[in-house]
């Protein structure tokens, strides 16, 4: 009888070990958009959609500032948005858990640089004067966002300076315009960064 009990216990142990061997840890992985560097105005998107578990579904939670306190509860929402109040380096940690309670973590750093610099809104008009038959060329290619020089700003134009924008926001920084009436105009340019910052530049143009 005692041998039978030992045998049954051994079977249970082997079965339990086999079950554990069949389960594998989930995979924790995430990306940060738009980049890992920004300012206090940048909204970061943490995307964990590539995290998975081979045996089933997963839940996840975030510590977005490296204070070792979870900023979210476990959920099945794979995307989280966050901003940061001050300059510094923040450690972002993702933890995923599978249906068996196995977990895995992944971490990346987000760097917040100094306060954002002012946008540079510049444009030239060619020719500098003309009449109602003249087609004027507006060029804002020198406009930029010094916080992210590699990212193009978008521009829009108010050719008459009447407070009504004649175009939408576009990455194309040049435009042509002809004036119907001879008078003094105050053409304006507005530029917009990816963070939503804007700046306006205005010039004077006399049509004979």
Search tags:
10% helix; Immunoglobulin-like; 2 domains; 3-stranded antiparallel beta sheet; 208 residues; 1 helix; mainly beta
Topology record:
Blueprint: H1 2-22, E1 31-33, E2 37-38, E3 44-47, E4 58-63, E5 79-82, E6 88-98, E7 103-112, E8 124-126, E9 135-139, E10 154-158, E11 174-178, E12 184-185, E13 188-192, E14 198-202, E15 205-206
Parallel strand pairs: 2-7
Antiparallel strand pairs: 1-3, 3-5, 4-6, 6-7, 8-9, 9-11, 10-13, 12-15, 13-14
Beta-sheet strand percentage? 25-35%
Number of helices: 1
Shape: elongated
The H-and-E topology, N to C, reads as HEEEEEEEEEEEEEEE
State the end-to-end CA separation: 115 Å
Low-pLDDT stretches are none
Give the biggest beta sheet.
Answer: 4 strands, mixed
Number of strands: 15
What is the CATH-assigned architecture of the largest domain? Sandwich
CATH level-4 homologous superfamily of the largest domain: Immunoglobulins
Helix-strand category: mainly beta
Q: For the largest sheet, list the strands in their spatial order.
A: 2-7-6-4
Q: Assign the CATH class of the largest domain.
A: Mainly Beta
Percent of residues in helical segments?
Answer: 10-25%
According to CATH, what is the topology of the largest domain?
Immunoglobulin-like
In total, the number of domains comes to 2
Overall average pLDDT: 90
């Amino acid at each position: 009888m005692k041998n039978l009990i030992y045998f049954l216990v051994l079977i249970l142990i082997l079965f339990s070990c086999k079950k554990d061997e069949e389960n594998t840890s989930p995979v924790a992985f995430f990306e940060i958009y738009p980049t890992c560097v920004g300012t206090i105005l940048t909204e970061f998107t943490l995307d964990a959609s590539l995290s998975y578990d081979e045996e089933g579904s997963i839940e996840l939670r975030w510590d977005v500032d490296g204070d070792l306190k979870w900023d979210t509860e476990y959920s099945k929402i794979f995307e989280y948005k966050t901003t940061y109040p001050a300059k510094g380096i923040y450690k972002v940690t993702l933890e995923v858990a599978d249906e068996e309670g196995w977990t895995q973590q992944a971490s990346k750093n987000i760097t917040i640089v100094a306060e954002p610099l002012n946008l540079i809104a510049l444009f030239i008009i060619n020719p500098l004067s003309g009449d109602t038959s003249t087609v004027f060329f507006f060029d804002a290619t020198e406009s930029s966002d010094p916080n992210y020089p590699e990212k193009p700003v978008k521009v829009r134009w108010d050719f008459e300076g009447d407070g009504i924008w004649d175009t939408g926001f576009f990455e194309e920084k040049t435009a042509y315009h002809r004036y119907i009436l001879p008078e003094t105009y105050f053409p304006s340019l507005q530029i917009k960064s990816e963070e939503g910052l804007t700046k306006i530049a205005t010039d004077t143009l006399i049509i004979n």
